Automatic annotation (TrEMBL):
Protein name: Alcohol dehydrogenase
Family: Belongs to the short-chain dehydrogenases/reductases (SDR) family.
UniProt-listed GO biological process terms: alcohol metabolic process
Keywords: NAD, Oxidoreductase
Xref: SUPFAM superfamilies: NAD(P)-binding Rossmann-fold domains
Gene Ontology CC entries for this record: cytoplasm
Subunit note: Homodimer.
Molecular function terms, GO-annotated: alcohol dehydrogenase (NAD+) activity
EC number(s) given by UniProt: 1.1.1.1
Oxidoreductase as UniProt keyword: yes
Reactions catalysed: a secondary alcohol + NAD(+) = a ketone + NADH + H(+); a primary alcohol + NAD(+) = an aldehyde + NADH + H(+)
Length: 231
């Protein structure tokens, strides 16, 4: 309650339901950075808690680090303080090797690096909280999509390192790693070198969860706020 939150990819499948769940907690500000423009979804969010200011800024996580810093500076200039950064951008397509690494890992690292300029206690900052959305594939790979799984393993290790650096930076971190969630992401996707053309169908034979179920537990993890947590 009363927190300022930046949510990267807060209008996606899991992102939108998580944004809705967050707004039931009476945030002060929710700033959504997303490459997609979902006007209908944004309007629905603004109706949940009129007291919370919901702002949308178009943002591509693959932009250079300096561009990320400019976007965050505008947010900090306006809000003065930000309590939580949620990094949620992701794609699943092992034909797109560079894009997968750029969105799932490099973009997350750059956005995190950019916000340190405003949070790092060594620079007089107040500290902050980073929540990174990973995937169970980060520690239990879907071997037919090794590029995606590898990018998520990188997220897990990067987040673990951030948590151990909290004593130096004042910034804590944890990761939320969903299992198979019924999103547009998993309906049809490409395996690496087409080693398994039916990988999407095979994946959905396993137990799944809805985006709403995922969002509810996601916000529970945020409320627990456990530095180094691997949820």
């Amino acid at each position: 309650k009363g927190k300022n939150v930046i949510f990267v990819a807060g209008l996606g499948d899991i992102g939108l339901d998580t944004s809705k769940e967050l707004l039931t907690r009476e945030l002060k500000n929710l700033v959504i950075l997303d490459v997609r423009e979902n006007t209908e979804g944004l309007c629905a969010l603004k109706e949940i808690c009129p007291e919370t200011k919901v702002t949308f800024i178009k943002y591509d996580v693959t932009v250079p680090l300096d561009e990320s810093k400019k976007v965050l500076k505008k947010i900090f200039d306006k809000l003065k303080t930000v309590d939580i950064l949620i990094n949620g951008a992701g794609i699943l397509d092992d034909h797109k090797i560079e894009a997968t690494i750029a969105v799932n890992y490099t973009g997350l690292v750059n956005t995190t690096t950019a916000i340190m300029e405003f949070w790092d206690k060594r620079c007089g900052g107040p500290g902050g909280i980073i929540c990174n959305i990973g995937s169970v594939t980060g520690f239990n790979a879907i071997y037919q999509v090794p590029v995606y799984s590898g990018s998520k393993a990188a997220v897990v290790n990067f987040t673990s390192s951030l948590a151990k650096l909290a004593g130096i930076t004042g910034v804590t971190a944890y990761s939320v790693n969903p299992g198979i969630t019924r999103t547009t992401l998993v309906q049809k996707f490409n395996s690496w070198l087409d080693v398994e053309p039916d990988v999407a169908e095979l994946l959905l034979e396993h137990p799944t969860q809805s985006t709403k179920e995922c969002a509810e537990n996601f916000v529970k993890a945020i409320e627990k706020n456990k530095n180094g947590g691997l949820w």
